[in-house]
Write the structure tokens for this entry.
Amino acid sequence: MDVMKSFSLEGRVALVTGAAYGIGFAIAEALAGAGAKIVFNCRSQENLDKALADYKAKGIDARGYIADVTKEDEVAELVAKIKKELGGVDILVNNAGIIKRIPMTEMSAEEFRQVVDIDLIGPFICAKAVIPGMIEKGHGKIINICSMMSELGRETVSAYAAAKGGLKMLTRNICSEYGGANIQCNGIGPGYIATPQTAPLRERQSDGSRHPFDQFIVAKTPAGRWGTPEDLMGPAVFLASDASDFVNGHVLYVDGGILAYIGKQP
Ligand code: NAP
Ligand code: GCO
């Protein structure tokens, strides 16, 4: 068996949600590098236009559309376009997500709902939209971008942790319900990754010192650094490819070891 060939995505079509920048952009770049055709979505024309230019600058002929993952009609229209233009979705990466850092007792139900809507209902809507086509094709890969907060909580991220914990179980349930149709649904659980989403946690203090949370994360991570979106590229290609055909319902933590480490004695 040519094991390296099993990592090839030649002839495959990948939809990466929220891939205008950040982790989604890096994962889309990785899948393109393995041969996949890339489609992505985001919510703003400005981000779409900039992303298309960024993909082009990397030699990636990505197709981008405005679509909100919480809107079933917009997702259905996006998936129909991909079927018409490219023959359907072989790989779905549910990457689009937000976080709101608010102490739970100060968070409104509406704010909680907004996070769950995008981070959990959105992946459900997108997976529901692509699975029928994957069943028709006889194969499919779904990768849900979970989080360390699929396993751990911390102050101010109640909605996000609830959503990402739910996304871990949605991953297992899609595996259970559609594994028999040769659909593999796995999660990637990034550790702390340097993207716009975590920029507030890394801001320099007024005295020029590093943010206390930045110092905490670096000390708590055995790798001794924040992750980068590039750290997720190899794991994404693995879970999107034939190389992982017998891996299903799993969350692969790409976290520099932080989940395994109790932390150094103060
Ligand atoms: P980011 O930099 O904030 O990017 C989020 C992306 O999602 C943007 O492209 C955004 O584009 C898009 N998006 C947000 N809501 C959307 C919606 N309703 N419909 C469509 N697109 C939407 O975040 P990131 O750090 O790259 O994180 C990406 C994913 O990884 C998220 O699911 C996040 O929870 C997860 N994650 C991040 C980390 C980390 O440390 N950074 C760690 C673990 C997991 P528009 O705003 O233009 O729509
Ligand atoms: C936070 C961070 C985390 C990371 C990530 C960790 O405020 O704690 O934003 O939630 O984004 O999800 O895996």
Q: What stands out?
A: The two ends are 50 Å apart (CA to CA).
